[in-house]
Amino acid sequence: MIKYGFGKEDITPKRGIGLCGYFEPRYNKGAHDPLTIKAALFESNGIVSGIVSYDLCLMGRALIEKIKAAVKNGGFAFAENLLYSCSHTHTGPYTSAVFSDGADPEYLQSVIDKTVLAVKNAYESLAEAKFRKGYAENSSMAFNRRFWMKDGTVLTNPGKLNPDIVKPEGNIDPSIPFFVVEQDGLDRLIVANISNHTDTIGDDLVSADWPGRMEREIQNHYGYDISVITLIGCQGNINHFNVKNNVNQTCYAEACRIGKGYAASIISMLYATEEIKADSIQVDSMEFDAPFYHVTDEEYNEAKKIVEEIGDISATSANDLTSEGIAAGNLYVKKFFAQRVLDNREKPAKNDRKEYMTALKFGDELGIVTLPAEPFVEIGLAIKANSRFATTMVAALTQGEIGYVGLPESYGRGGGYETRPGYGSPSHELAPVLIETGTKLINK
User: Fold this and answer.
1) If we measure between CA atoms, which residue out of 13, 8, 213 comes closest to residue 120?
2) CA–CA separation, 174 and 134 (whole Å)
3) What is the tens place of the pLDDT at every residue in 232-283?
4) Burial class of residue 232 (count of CB atoms within 10 Å of its CB; 0-12, 13-18, 19+)
5) Facing residues of 224 across strands?
6) Does 361 share its domain with 312?
7) How many structural domains are present in the chain?
8) Distance between CA atoms of 66 and 224, rounded to whole angstroms?
9) Which position has the higher pLDDT, 22 or 157?
């Protein structure tokens, strides 16, 4: 028998706080919809594990360690067994120095405190539950955002209807594995694993983006407020832009459209869910080396030349804040990325870095493995292919965030910003390590 408990807290920030996701902070002017922490706990034979999901862009290991310490101090020794996962919304507050150090200490402390409350409420509500697993697909909402161009290079977000596009660099992962928790005769929770970026809105109003809209649409289907947790899959080279049309896909309406689309895919497959007969849970974690990348002399000298030639320049519009500026030849964006290369050399990070990954397993029927990064989709596909579980979820942006992890062969192909070095960028050889570690954990 596996027990289930749930807790939820609101973490919608005050007006004026800096929002994460782009090159410079956008200061919050209100909210499209609320941000939350959701804690789903599972207990069997004295082992407690679970998922703590945040409507935030990311959380580094340092913040997660503070959260774990607070949860332990709150009396919950199982803090190490929890999966701390971000939805990656680009309209949530800063939690660390990403492109700009805009984190608000009071807000971060509130996130820590409310995590403890959510876990406490979840623990106190643990009760017997039934579990079902399901599988859906959706290939119309996500696209590989890196494209081979006619000049032989790879470019990220090259712009809609760009005549120089040849083909995508890679594939997508259309699969949506999910599980449903039933308690007291009602479905109470759905956890879905979806590989897509959570960056559809682009304005300065807080939002949980399409995962929040997906939850609302599923709730509309049920007629009551069932909780939905989205575990974002490997999406470092994936987003929602369809370059074959000229439709505006940066707006709140787009978050609603995508949320409804994914909800429809899941709802259509609820009839086919199968009972998870497992009566035990297993949690395994593994620490691994995640070394930093150090730029070459050639990369450094080229970047220095760009910075010097462009000189002083400031962002003048929203178009200066996003990666689409690379394809457009935006000088502010060009200098921004060149400066990140200089920072890599001039503000060197330590040569060693330890990160960790966790696997949560329900008997022999369902496995979840975490990745503390924004990995390319191929990394998740490889772990799934190697897994002993028929239903495997790969949760990116979970247990930390070290940045984009591309395939070794993807580096050096030109204008894809995910593979451009910056301060704290991971080694170009990290993808095989993630695949190997994830495979060991899920099969342990």
Assistant:
1) 8
2) 14
3) 999 999 999 999 999 999 999 999 999 999 999 999 999 999 999 999 999 9
4) buried
5) none
6) no
7) 2
8) 35
9) 157
The answer to pTM > 0.90 is: yes
SS3 content of the chain, % helix, strand, coil (to 5): 30, 30, 40
* Residue 394: partners with Cβ closer than 8 Å, 6 or more residues away: 193, 233, 234, 368, 369, 370, 371, 379, 380, 383, 384, 438
φ, ψ for residue 128 (rounded to 5)?
A: -55, 140
Q: What is the dihedral of CA 201, 134, 50, 435, to 10 degrees?
A: -80
The DSSP 8-state label assigned to residue 31 in this structure reads B
Both tokens assigned to 335: 């200098």
Question: Is the same domain home to 324 and 244?
Answer: no
Q: Confirm if 288 and 442 have CB atoms less than 8 A apart.
A: no
360 in the same domain as 342: no
Find the farthest-apart pair of alpha carbons in the chain and give their distance in angstroms, rounded: 67
Give which of 419, 435, 340 is closest to 145, Cα–Cα. Answer: 419
37: closest CA among 75, 99, 93? 93
